[in-house]
Amino acid sequence: PFKKRSKKVVCLRQILFIVTVVALSVVASYQFFIFHVGFGGSHAEVNLVDSFLVSAVRDPNASATPRSRDASASETPQSNTSQKESPWDDEEIDPDLEEERCRRYGFSYDRARTTRRRIFWGCMVADDSWLLLRAIAAEARGVYHTAAFVESDATHRGDPRTLRFPPGSEEWRRLTQDPDLFGPNTRVSVDLYANDLPASVQFHFMHRQYLHRQVVLERWKKNGMRPDDIGILSDADEMFSRDFLRAAQICDVPEFRPGQDCKSAKILAAGLVFESSPECVVDRFVLWQPSMVIGECVEPIGDNRLHRPPKRMVGNGTQSWRAPGHGGHPGNSYDIYLNGTGIKSSDGRQMYPLWNAADF
After folding, report:
1. N or C end of the chain: smaller count of CB under 10 Å?
2. So what's the pLDDT on residue 14?
3. Is residue 331 part of a domain?
4. pTM summary value
């Protein structure tokens, strides 16, 4: 019976197919996730892009030069030359508004608090579109203390790649010196990861990604991150909404209170995954990214005398994933760590390891 379709019906279906493909392509091109943030099993919705693409303003207080994992990037303070005003008016703390915002996410608000927590953000960067980079900068304009990018001269699988943001290049200036991005006080930098691992070293490609990301944590430390600051690691196509970032800065968040044992220090975002190509079909439609961790539990920032380092899978047991029995897979058990490495606080609570980039 299907052989007797009229030409008009076939033509109409072809037109509908083309229109559908075009519409899906437009939607997919924005590469946005819609996040839900979970706390203790409950989920509070975070509206993602209620904002619009704006001309954000920043004063680059840091510029990066090439470096490997264990080298330092120099900084050259710059003056703010932009005269553009911020489209946001949420910097001033209004107790009534802050209390309402905190309540939206299940937090309480201490009216005696007069300052916001600082946020240190970081991600890897490669061939991400400028539309995407400007979108994540606009959403967080004036919120981040530090925006730390890291670029590698090799892919996660170890294949050589040409640097897009070498210091002094037009792309580097556009990302770190352009006054239309992260805000007048945000320190933006691009640190370079030199792939110095010998070819004989064979391991899961994700290990190399984690070594790339570890450079971000080193930048946070160099920029003065403190135990009471917030760290966010993400990909360039992931972000918390501005409203939730402001809530994290001011609300009474249990994971951000002083004296953490660091066992469950991470705040997760549940990002919905949208398929935009038949070559990118997924079997899971939720990814738990990006992540927030308080500086007290971040590896270069927290007290490693209280939170003893666990054994890890790379670099003579010092880098990448935690080893089995030290909080790693399978089972995330701490049996070995607690029997030989972990210690207790002065009030008798068991302390757990600090979080590195792989743990994020």
Report:
1. N
2. 61
3. no
4. 0.75
